[in-house]
């Protein structure tokens, strides 16, 4: 196989999971903007997600958020997805929207609240059993706002205890992905603030516990690709929540704010052997002011472009330059790949897969946007149902 053929073959295998909540209305704490044609239930979210897969050929699974996507019959929901050519992906837990969770969920000082949160997490595993999902994605809003508010170490103990109970419940082929975030909604301490804390808990739990890197969950200036390289070396990178940020947890389209960072991350993924089904590429985004489905298509394409560039890095030349201490040449090799216009290559890949080379244009021509705007009245907010 020529090198280019190998790059194309790799690109054809790439799968990006889209989040059900990205199809719903969203906004900031100041305003949620309603858009025409937004889904009214989880079934319609899957219909939209299927369109993203239809035109990109690269978004075969859809993440659910419980209870935002609560359904009476999860097997029926999974069937609905499969009839449209997609599958249900990670089940995201939600222990942050009830009044009970004001002081935290599984780290809460009151055992009754901890029990309630744990029961929710166990219910998420029941849902995984029904949908065939393999990943439970855990993000905890737990933390404190004021020094002295609660005991930092005791909260870590409660976290470890709760995670262990959920870990025990995982079945064959199921895993838990622990997500960290450095602040928000807690402002003084966060119970899982960084990759180190997530890693320490996952290491103790065992091989079914892996760390998730949400690209929007770091302090400005953090070298995310270093974290990726380290987690891969340790066999603990479970996946990504991709999005872009300028300031905090902005949840903008991945690859929009800093495509170079995305390239550097993807290079480390490939370098570290993480371009494999064990590392889940998921989006975690909200489209507040832009049309949602084309924005998600654009996001999938941005991941593909960064991946294509990372695959094109001449690793032999890079290795030579690194070994000989040729700093400028090593940097130039990397930049050559980054500066390559990979859009024609990806257009070719799509044509070879029987797809339109321009997924956004194909979506626009399909008439889906007009159809849903006409048929769906009263679309829901991303967090609806909680
Ligand atoms: C938290 O900021 C987060 O990134 C987690 O992944 C949540 O599940 C998601 O956003 C949706 O609120
Ligand atoms: Mn996330
Ligand atoms: Mn987030």
UniProtKB/TrEMBL annotation:
<dbReference type="GO" id="GO:0008740">
    <property type="term" value="F:L-rhamnose isomerase activity"/>
</dbReference>
<dbReference type="InterPro" id="IPR036237">
    <property type="entry name" value="Xyl_isomerase-like_sf"/>
</dbReference>
<dbReference type="Pfam" id="PF01261">
    <property type="entry name" value="AP_endonuc_2"/>
</dbReference>
<dbReference type="GO" id="GO:0009045">
    <property type="term" value="F:xylose isomerase activity"/>
</dbReference>
<keyword id="KW-0413">Isomerase</keyword>
<keyword id="KW-0479">Metal-binding</keyword>
<dbReference type="InterPro" id="IPR013022">
    <property type="entry name" value="Xyl_isomerase-like_TIM-brl"/>
</dbReference>
<dbReference type="InterPro" id="IPR050337">
    <property type="entry name" value="L-rhamnose_isomerase"/>
</dbReference>
<dbReference type="GO" id="GO:0046872">
    <property type="term" value="F:metal ion binding"/>
</dbReference>
<dbReference type="GO" id="GO:0019301">
    <property type="term" value="P:rhamnose catabolic process"/>
</dbReference>
<feature type="domain" description="Xylose isomerase-like TIM barrel">
    <location>
        <begin position="55"/>
        <end position="244"/>
    </location>
</feature>
<dbReference type="InterPro" id="IPR013457">
    <property type="entry name" value="Rhamnose_iso-rel"/>
</dbReference>
<dbReference type="GO" id="GO:0019324">
    <property type="term" value="P:L-lyxose metabolic process"/>
</dbReference>
<protein>
    <submittedName>
        <fullName>Xylose isomerase</fullName>
        <ecNumber>5.3.1.5</ecNumber>
    </submittedName>
</protein>
<keyword id="KW-0464">Manganese</keyword>
